[in-house]
Write a structure and sequence with these properties.
Fumarase C, Chain A, domain 2; two-stranded antiparallel ribbon; Ribonucleotide Reductase Protein R1, domain 1; binds arginine; 59% helix; mainly alpha; 436 residues; 3 domains
Length: 436
């Protein structure tokens, strides 16, 4: 069955049908399509298009479809898309009354409505995932509250920081991601139904009532815009792409930090794999896949921006590709957030290795310069003095705190013992520069 066969004399070619068919993808809209159709039926009854009996038959028929089918079962059904499947299945249950459901509606405002419901729900789930990951990071920071790690710039040891400082950096990133998704929600949460194919509806449907029933905050103002607006899709994809950039950077850190060379983290066996050939291997596949998924997610965003930018105003079938982009992105995001969370919850910090790395006193060079500043030396001169001390220590193959610093500035005779321990360097931040 097709919803539009009447005007045609010939059947479409199977190859074209294969391309045109979206049911394999949009079957996931089963639940939202039925919810939106039930609300639409009520609005048709409200303006006299359906009798109370017809409404009841349609409403119950739709409810039944939802209880009888899962999206998985629907995927293989021989229909063009989810809207056709629902209408055809309804007709098989309640007969010709089903044919009244599509009054004043087009698949254009229908699919825009369905998809907004879907994306709204997806955002809710992502927000919960983000919150759970942030909670795991905060917990890890607290569990290893004493642990200090080297912070890097240019991938070179820069200054020591607490493990919690590292964890909370990602809490910040993921909370910005959450706020971006939340802000997008206000632009997703708008009802297009009632826009028809492009120009609006000839029936005085109560769109506000439909919006209330479906939980939309607002109704769309312009039918021409509402039927072809996919800004909410672009926003979802870009919020996700930015989030995946953060996930990928964290993955990259954890891949490095868990190498034999760094030896900072012991990843759990729950999130690592072995090698089919090399018996000793424990590979960080999860993080590697996250890194790749971040790239592919960016591709979906740029791909869909490309789809949109040349479209003439009004619905065009190009828009159908929005589903694949969003569904794949949604899957990438959810899997990545879950695996990151699992990794954070199960990681073991190799505290002996970290202690050794963090106690590299060259990372206290800035503190030495600042110490001279406190004595009245201009920072630029202090930098120069400490740089000379660094050179000397390197030449002597010693640590910065193992050479006689007073040879470089008499002020260093006052330098308290243990000035360059990682603990003291960390504690000095945000406190008195004179600690200890
Ligand atoms: N499967 C289509 C989509 O996702 C539904 C809308 C079809 N509309 C149309 N006029 N052919 O966009």
């Amino acid at each position: 069955m097709k919803l539009w066969q009447g005007r045609f004399e010939e059947d479409s070619d199977p190859v074209f049908e294969k391309m045109n068919r979206s049911l394999g993808v949009d079957a996931v809209l089963l639940e939202v399509d039925i919810r939106a159709s039930r609300a639409h039926a009520r609005s048709l009854a409200g303006c006299g298009v359906l009798t109370p009996e017809e409404l009841k038959a349609i409403d119950q028929g739709l409810e039944q479809i939802l209880s009888e089918y899962t999206p998985e079962q629907v995927k293989a059904a021989p229909y063009e898309d989810i809207h056709t499947f629902v209408e055809a299945t309804l007709a098989s249950k309640i007969g010709p009354t089903a044919g009244k459901l599509h009054t004043g509606r087009s698949r254009n405002d229908q699919v825009a409505t369905d998809f907004r419901l879907f994306v709204r729900k997806a955002i809710g789930l992502i927000l919960a995932d983000l919150e759970a990951l942030q909670a795991a990071l905060i917990e890890s920071g607290a569990r290893y509250s004493e642990v200090i790690i080297p912070a890097y710039t240019h991938m070179r040891r820069a200054q020591p920081i607490r493990w919690s400082h590292y964890c909370l950096a990602y809490v910040e990133m993921f909370s910005r991601d959450a706020s971006r998704f939340e802000q997008s929600l206000s632009r997703v949460d708008i009802l297009p139904l009632g826009s028809g194919a492009v120009a609006g509806s000839n029936f005085p449907v109560d769109r506000e009532a439909v919006a209330r029933e479906l939980g939309f905050a607002k109704i769309s103002a312009n039918s021409l815009d509402a039927t072809c607006d996919r800004d909410f899709v672009i926003e979802f994809l870009s919020d996700a792409a930015i989030m995946m950039v953060h996930a990928s950077r964290m993955a990259e850190d954890w891949i490095m930090y868990s190498t034999e060379e760094f030896g900072f983290l012991e990843l759990s066996e729950k999130v690592t794999t072995g090698s089919s050939l090399m018996p000793q291997k424990k590979n960080p596949d999860g993080f590697e896949i996250i890194r790749a998924k971040a790239a592919m997610t960016t591709g979906l965003l740029t791909g869909f921006l490309g789809v949109m930018k040349g479209l003439p105003t009004g619905y065009n079938k190009d828009l159908q590709e929005d589903k694949e982009a969003v569904l794949k992105t949604f899957e990438n995001v959810r899997l990545s957030l879950s695996v990151l969370r699992l990794s954070v919850r199960t990681v073991t910090l190799k505290t002996d290795r970290l202690e050794k790395a963090a106690s590299d006193s060259f990372m206290g060079a800035t503190d030495l310069a600042d110490f001279l500043v406190m004595k009245g030396v201009p920072f630029r001169s202090a930098h120069e003095i400490v740089a000379r001390a660094v050179r000397e220590a390197l030449d002597q193959k010693k640590q910065l705190d193992q050479i006689d610093l007073s040879a470089f500035s008499p002020f260093f005779t006052d330098l308290p013992a243990g000035y360059l321990t990682a603990e003291n360097i960390v504690n000095r931040k945000g406190h008195s520069p004179l600690i200890p």
